[in-house]
Design brief:
The chain has a 3-stranded parallel β-sheet with strand order 1-2-3, covered by helices on one side. The chain is mostly helical and about 130 residues long. Helix 3 crosses helix 4.
């Protein structure tokens, strides 16, 4: 089993960072971010999913910046194709903050797509992925 040495961020730290980007999140959405970050950090130890390894930097650079699109653009519904999704940004982050979006992840790297499959099984968010 993959483990991580990085301590998970608290719900308060996540909520504070999101508010800096004018992003409102429910307790459930914050919990999804925590689980996603934990899984990403663990997989990053063995497979290069993302170059960012610091949890706080990951929160700001991946989650907050991706989720800010939901503030800047009217993303209340519709479909989103994330081509070259890598670690799932911005697609998975936007799906967490706007669960009504229909998100399609497209990635040629099977290892990264396998990471998503693991995430899909634990998140219960309906997603579609192609690789």
């Amino acid at each position: 089993m993959l483990t991580t040495n990085a301590a998970p961020l608290s719900a308060d730290a996540i909520n504070k960072a999101l508010r800096e980007f004018k992003i409102e999140a429910t307790t459930e959405q914050i919990a999804l971010i925590q689980r996603y970050m934990s899984l990403l950090l663990a997989w990053n130890e063995k497979i290069n999913i993302t170059a960012i390894r610091d949890p706080l930097e990951m929160l700001y650079r991946h989650f907050c910046e991706s989720m800010y699109a939901a503030v800047a653009l009217p993303l209340q519904g519709g479909r989103l194709a994330d081509v070259g999704s890598g670690g799932g940004f911005p697609g998975l982050a936007l799906k967490i903050i706007r669960p009504e979006l229909q998100v399609f992840l497209i990635e040629s790297n099977v290892k990264k797509a396998t990471f998503w499959q693991k995430w899909f099984g634990s998140s219960h968010l309906p997603m579609r992925a192609c690789w």
